[in-house]
Design goal:
Blueprint lengths: L6 H10 L4 H14 L6 E4 L1 H17 L9 E5 L26 H8 L3 E6 L19 E2 L2 E5 L5 H8 L5 E6 L5 H7 L2 E2 L21 E6 L2 H11 L28 E5 H4 L6 H16 L3 E5 L7 H17 L21
Length: 339
């Protein structure tokens, strides 16, 4: 079976009879089994995925399948899925089972996506290389001597290695976008409040967002459309109507686009990335769009400010994992000193 570039390709193949949801799941299960060396999956829901695939194949024949029929999805190990373990890649939550599903998971399932497993990440989503996980580091599928990026390194590597069609990640300060770049796939951090965070093990609540990692912009748009929208379980979620994001035809009206010139002058910027960015600017201008540079004099304080805010929020959010209410508890915890 080939590496499908998009859900549209998969669904066309299903219509032609060349593949089925069941054959897709078996294909991914075989690939996951053959790529354990990458240390991407921490748990595979094989039996459940097979049963669900059979059911969706029946719905396809009956003409009642959802928009995501044929999409096999992996979820980051900090997103809750009822009846399944979730650990945020930490020993602290070893053996903890979700009592409810995240809103994003429920919305994917409603449209007949198949969730095949949970994937590795940096511990409590705090990291940029996927090297802080209790399960060990994730290797980059393109070069196992390189990191996959983080904290959603398992999600990006799973898509890049064709161990699923789409993966969900979470992004606080780059944790979807950076590993997607490292692994050569598409990653999108939706605008804050666009996607419900209900069921996400929080790092920094005023920054966190759940988003897709995909093989195509088309699939990123479709998944974002499905998981977006008001959620009564997340008071910060936006009530603005969800647009059909997967309608990604080039707009006829011309846009005004700006960028911060200081980023292009940063000594840490890779020359290849700079060249690609400048090529993109030239392409946009050639299409008639206005592209202007802007000056931002506070660039040097962005990262320090980020760490002041996020570490304070992380301290508040993670204090609940104290081994009393839930979480790992040492068998020698007779007193403070013995722990």
């Amino acid at each position: 079976m080939k590496n499908f570039a998009s859900l549209n390709e998969i669904q066309e193949s299903i219509k032609s009879g060349s593949v089925s949801c069941l054959s897709l799941v078996n294909y991914y299960l075989d690939r996951i089994d053959g790529h354990k060396d990458l240390n991407i999956y921490v748990e595979v829901f094989a039996e459940e995925a097979i049963v669900r695939a059979k059911n969706i194949d029946e719905k396809i024949l009956a003409g009642t399948a959802g928009k995501l029929a044929g999409m096999v999805v992996a979820i980051k190990d900090n997103i809750c899925f009822k009846g399944h373990s979730v650990s945020a890649a930490s020993k602290i939550l070893e053996g903890f089972e979700s009592l409810y599903s995240a809103t994003v998971v429920e919305r994917l399932l409603k449209e007949d996506a198949i969730i095949i497993g949970r994937v590795n990440c940096d511990e409590f989503a705090m990291g940029s290389a996927n090297e802080t996980s209790f399960y060990g580091p994730v290797k980059n599928p393109h070069n196992i001597k390189k990191v996959s990026g983080g904290s959603s390194g398992g999600s990006a590597a799973a898509v890049a290695a064709d161990l699923c069609q789409v993966a969900l990640g979470s992004d606080t300060g780059g944790s979807i976008r950076q590993p997607a770049a490292f692994c050569g796939v598409v990653g999108l951090k939706p605008t804050y409040s666009r996607v419900s965070r209900y069921g996400l093990i929080a790092y920094a609540s005023s920054f966190d967002q759940i988003g897709p990692i995909t093989k195509s912009v088309e699939d990123a748009a479709l998944v974002t459309e499905i998981i977006s929208g008001k959620d009564p379980n997340d008071s910060t979620s936006s009530s603005v109507n969800v647009e059909p994001y997967n309608n990604i035809e080039l707009p006829t009206e011309k846009k005004k686009i700006t960028y911060l010139k200081e980023y292009l002058e940063s000594p840490g910027l890779d020359p290849e990335i700079k060249d690609k960015f400048l090529t993109l600017i030239a392409k946009l201008k050639a299409q008639g769009h206005t592209v202007e540079e802007q000056t931002f004099s506070f660039l040097d304080v962005i990262v320090p400010s980020y760490y002041v805010l996020t570490t304070a929020e992380a301290s508040s959010n993670l204090a609940r994992f104290d081994g009393v209410h839930f979480g790992y508890r040492s068998s020698n915890a007779n007193n403070l000193e013995s722990t």
